[in-house]
Q: What sequence folds into this?
């Protein structure tokens, strides 16, 4: 799948805005707004930006667009954005929404809550079960299935099979990244249907705490890396 006219326009806008002196991050967000294709194949890699036609992985598109301006972005800012979701310029939610457009912002929220936080919910529950079993001296075998049963009432394999049957996907032993994201988003909507609002709110809080905790660890690890150049205060 080749980039369409809208995508070419987005790339051209990005390069032109940089040439005119606009900050690369602002130019990038404006290019995101102009981008049209929900997915594409580029340089031997498949990019799926819009999962299930609802959830927008904006950082994946940002990564793709950054390839078009390789060498024009400070390395630290590039790493902070793509690995830690820390932009070089602090924008309000309204400013961010305005730059990428209302439709993409809404789809981004679907991705944030429906895929990213759903994955962290699974991780958080898995770790809770592991700690509980360790305290009791029990094996953590099949711990992931226990987490899935706790959250969704069935094992991962059972849920994946139901998901694939519903979508008429082949019952393969492997799964691509795009299908995995689609499955996670399906799990999110499945959980919303079977849980009450208080349970959903509690799960969201748990996932957010896990996400913030891991981002903090990643940031501290990056700062303590020996490859990081010293600051003026060091």
A:
């Amino acid at each position: 799948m080749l980039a369409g006219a809208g995508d070419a326009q987005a790339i051209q806008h990005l390069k032109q805005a940089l040439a005119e002196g606009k900050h690369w991050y602002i130019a990038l967000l404006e290019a995101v707004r102009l981008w049209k294709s929900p997915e594409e194949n580029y340089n031997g890699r498949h990019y799926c930006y819009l999962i299930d036609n609802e959830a927008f992985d904006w950082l994946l598109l940002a990564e793709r667009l950054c390839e078009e301006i390789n060498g024009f972005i400070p390395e630290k800012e590039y790493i902070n954005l793509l690995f830690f979701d820390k932009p070089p310029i602090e924008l309000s939610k309204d400013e961010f929404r305005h730059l990428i457009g209302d439709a993409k912002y809404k789809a981004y929220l679907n991705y944030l809550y429906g895929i990213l936080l759903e994955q962290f919910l699974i991780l958080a529950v898995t770790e809770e079960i592991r700690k509980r079993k360790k305290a009791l001296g029990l094996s953590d075998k099949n711990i992931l299935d226990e987490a899935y049963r706790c959250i969704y009432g069935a094992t991962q394999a059972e849920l994946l099979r139901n998901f694939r049957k519903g979508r008429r996907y082949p019952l393969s032993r492997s799964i691509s990244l795009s299908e995995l994201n689609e499955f996670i988003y399906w799990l999110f909507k499945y959980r919303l249907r079977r849980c009450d609002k208080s349970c959903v709110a509690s799960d969201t809080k748990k996932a957010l705490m896990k996400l913030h905790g891991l981002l903090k660890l990643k940031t501290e690890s990056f700062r303590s890396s020996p490859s990081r150049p010293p600051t003026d205060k060091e």
Notes: Confidence is low (pLDDT under 50) at residues 227-234. The chain is about 65% helix and 5% strand.
